[in-house]
Amino acid sequence: MNTDSETIPIQEEQIEAVLDRSSRLAAAHIREILAKARELHGLTMVDVAALMHVSDPELMGELFDAARAVKEEIYGKRLVLFAPLYISNLCANECVYCAFRARNTALKRRALTQEEIAREVTLLVESGHKRILLVAGESYPQEGFSYVLKSIETIYSVKSGNGEIRRVNANVAPLTVDEFKQLKATGIGTYQLFQETYHKQTYAKCHLGGKKADYGWRVSAMDRAMEAGIDDVGIGVLFGLFDWRFELLAMMQHIHHLEQKFGVGPHTISVPRLEPAIGSDMAEHPPHAVADVDFRKLVAILRLAVPYTGIIMSTRETANIRRETFALGVSQISAGSRTNPGGYVEDEKFDSSQFQLGDHRTLDEVVRDVASLGYIPSFCTACYRMGRTGADFMDLAKPGKITDHCDVNAVSTFLEYLTDYASPETRAAGEQRIQEALAGFTPARRAIAQKLIDDVKAGKRDAFV
Ligand code: SAM
Ligand code: SF4
Questions:
Q1: Which of ligand 2's atoms lies nearest the C-alpha of 137?
Q2: How many other CB atoms are there within 10 angstroms of residue 355's CB atom?
Q3: 133 within 8 A of 171, measured Cβ to Cβ
Q4: How many domains would you assign to the chain?
Q5: Has residue 203 been placed in a domain?
Q6: What pTM did the predictor assign?
Q7: In a domain, 303, yes or no
Q8: Closest Cα to residue 237, out of 225, 252, 216, 223?
Q9: Which ligand is the nearest neighbour of the Cα of 281?
Q10: 374: CATH
Q11: Residue of 89, 90, 91 to mutate, ligand 2, most atoms within 8 A of C-beta
Q12: How far does residue 99's CA lie from ligand 2's centre (Å)?
C-alpha cells in the first residue's frame, strides 16, 4: 500500500487557511449557519470554523439548542450502551501518552487467554451488556493477529442465562486489506480506529517507535477497511494532543474523503480526551488540554456538521460531562467499563490499565440515571445483523426511516434488560420511562412497539424489527 502524501486525505495547508481566514462573525451570520444545520444536511469546513469562534453566552445557548434539536430529530431519546473489553496490554509501539507503550516498565503486562476472555464476557453478559468493543495493544501473543480473530469467536460463543453478546466492534491496530477481510469474516460490527492527531508534526512527536510511527499507514487504515468490505468504520481524535480546532477540520476532511471514495462516511466518531495514565507525563499534562467549555462546544459542532454519524462518549469522562453531552449530540456511551485486561473479573487495577476512568458507576446505575434524564437506554444490535450498514444504513437514516426501527427496538431491548438484569429501582424507573416513550409514539409505531413488548413479556429474547 502506497502511503505517499497524495493518498493521505488530510491537507494541512487547507485547514490552516480556513482557520486563518475564519473570524468572529456577526450574530446574524452565526444564526444563518445554525438554521442551515437544523435542515440536517451537515456543514462545510468554513461553517464549522465560524462556529468554533462562538463564545457569547446567548449564541452558545443557540448553538447548543440547535445541536439538541438535530440530535432529537435523528436519534430521538435513544442512547446505545456498550462495554469495552481489553484483551491484552502488550504493545510494540511507543505512544508517549499511553500506559501500554512498549518501554513503560511501570505497567504490568498481560494478554488474556481464551478462557479468561470467556470469563470476562460471561460477567459482561450477566450484567446485561449486548455490545462489546474489543480493544488491544499492537502486539499479540505467539499466534499473532489470529489471537484477535480467535478472541472475537470466543466472545460470540459465550451464552449465559438469556444473554449473549450480539455485536462485537473492534479497536485494534491498522491491518492490511487481507487481514481486514479476515476481521470482517468474524462478524464484527464497526472497525474503530482513532488517528489520535491529524497534525503530522505532533503525530511524529507523540509516536516515537513501532509501526504506529507511520502516519500514512494509520490515516489510510479506513480506506483499507472499506476496500475489504467493512462498511461501518469509526474514527476519532485523542483530544489534548493538538489544537482541537485543527483536529475537527481535519476530521471533516477525512470524512469527506471517505464519502467521495466509498459513497459513505464513518458510522461513528469518538471524542476521547487525554486522561492520566501510568508512566506518562504527557497524559498527566496534555499539551493542548481541551477545557470542558470547549469540549461541550466541539461535541455540539460535530453533531451539526455530520448529523448522521453517531457520536461515542466513553467512561473517560465524568458522569456530569457525560450527562451534559448526551443532550448535545452523543448517541452511544460505554458503561461499567474497565481498561485493564481481566478488569471485569478482577476489578480495576491502575497498574495494568490504559488510563484512568472518569465514571466508575455500574451499568445498572448508568441505565437508571440515563432513564431518569428522559433517555431510552438501547441495547439494540439489529442493524448490522439485518445488513443495514454503510450506505444502506445512510439510505434509511437520511429520509428518517431508520427511526421506524430504532425507536421500537430500543424499547424492546430496554425491556429485555430491565426484566433480566436490572435492580428493582432501575426496573421501576425504566418501566415508567418506557410508558412515557410509548405515549410519545405515533399510533402505528406504538402498535409495533407493543407487539415487541408483548413478545419480551412472553419470554422471547432478541425481539426486533
Ligand atoms: N492499540 C491500538 C491503537 O492504538 O490504535 C488500539 C487500542 S488503543 C488501546 C485505544 C485508544 O486509546 C487509542 O487509540 C487512544 O486514542 C486511546 N488512549 C491511549 N492513551 C490514552 C490516554 N492516556 N487517555 C485517553 N485515551 C487514551
Ligand atoms: Fe499501544 Fe495503542 Fe497504547 Fe499506542 S495507544 S501504546 S498502539 S495500545
A1: 8
A2: 22
A3: yes
A4: 2
A5: yes
A6: 0.95
A7: yes
A8: 252
A9: 1
A10: 3.20.20.70
A11: 91
A12: 8
